Amino acid sequence: MRKVIALWGLLFILTGCVGRGNEILQPSDILQQSSNEQELSHPLGASQLTSQHSEEGLFLQTVENDLFYLDPTLVQYKLSDQVSYFDFDKATIQLAGQDYPLQGSCFQTLQKDVHALTEQEEYVVDTLLASFQQSAKMQEHMQLLLDKGSMYLVYNQHLLFHGCLPLKSDGSFLPLTVADKDYSGKELLNFFEEQIRSGCQHQTKDSSAADWIWYCWTGKISPQFGKSAMTTFERYFIADKKTHKEIKNPYYHYRDTHETCQMILEEFALYSPHSRIINGHTPVKVKGGESPIKGEGMLFVDFLKPTKKQLVSLAIHC
């Protein structure tokens, strides 16, 4: 799991590109203009930088796939079979029974055992992992989150949380079943907080708790993710945009209703008529007419630099 996180970090660093010959995600106009004047300020240069970004994306897919096969705890939560369905001769991949051509040509290092990295790739990933684990600044930031943060907060009879509370299509709480026990609603948030804190206490070796930290980032029943799948690989290597879709959890529909907001508040023993939900991480498209006020005034989505009109509206609903 820690290798996966290290690779995600590198992908965020190598911005603006994907792939040798991959026309879907080429460098941005600004980067392209810069490369015309000089081969970027980055020591690798524009072409090598895009190539490395693409290969790191493939590293990530391989290591994530390996994580599922090695950790029996997470096998039942497997989100993606992409690497298992590679056709090396046709340069295609099978998703949901349909074959799609792969864009780009950075698959030279992919092994016939698609869950394995080459010796050189293992060295790259291990070096990244050591850099993350030994970073004093990273440790400082993580400790701040552990000291001050939590999956949710009840304050002044209001409920604050980040992301969502996963719901079924009928609007009831969606459970995550682990070791024959169901976790949903408040218990689900408590479960993930316990796993995160446990995983962070064992930084020198992997554990199932550490794997749940990764699941929290990309899992379909994760309150921090709240989507059907993370389609980073598809956006990098498949041109067909229908494979790029990430379907939001029904929570994002039901939070518009007073009944659902009331159900969530009562899940946290908040029965005051003045109690409200403050929902983070889910920016609203104010310019498109979307309101940050949901559930008939029961839920507020955080937003930056509110206008005077928005502040007046919030005051009225509070």
Q: How would you describe this protein?
A:
The chain is of the alpha+beta class and about 325 residues long. The chain has 12 helices and 10 strands. Helices cover about 40% and strands about 10% of the residues. It has a 5-stranded mixed sheet. Strands 1-2-3 form a 3-stranded antiparallel sheet, with no helix packed on it. Residues about 10-50 and about 80-85 have low confidence and may be disordered.
Strand order of the largest sheet: 4-5-8-10-9
Query: What Rg is obtained from the alpha carbons, in whole angstroms?
Result: 22 Å
Provide the succession of SSEs. HHHHEEEHHEEEEHHHHHEEEH
Structural class: alpha+beta
Portion of residues in beta strands equals 5-15%
Q: What spatial form do the alpha-carbon principal axes imply?
A: globular
Which whole number gives the mean pLDDT? 75
Low-confidence stretches: 10-50, 78-83
Report a brief summary of the structure.
By secondary structure, the protein is α+β, with helices and mostly antiparallel strands. It is 42% helix and 11% strand.
How is the secondary structure organized here?
Layout: H1 2-13, H2 29-37, H3 46-70, H4 72-75, E1 86-87, E2 92-95, E3 98-101, H5 119-133, H6 136-148, E4 152-155, E5 158-162, E6 176-178, E7 181-183, H7 186-201, H8 208-218, H9 232-237, H10 251-254, H11 258-267, E8 277-280, E9 293-294, E10 299-301, H12 308-317
Parallel strand pairs: 5-8, 8-10
Antiparallel strand pairs: 1-2, 2-3, 4-5, 6-7, 9-10
Helix pairs in contact: 1-3, 1-5, 7-8
Observed structural traits:
globular, 10 strands, alpha+beta, single chain, 318 residues, three-stranded antiparallel sheet
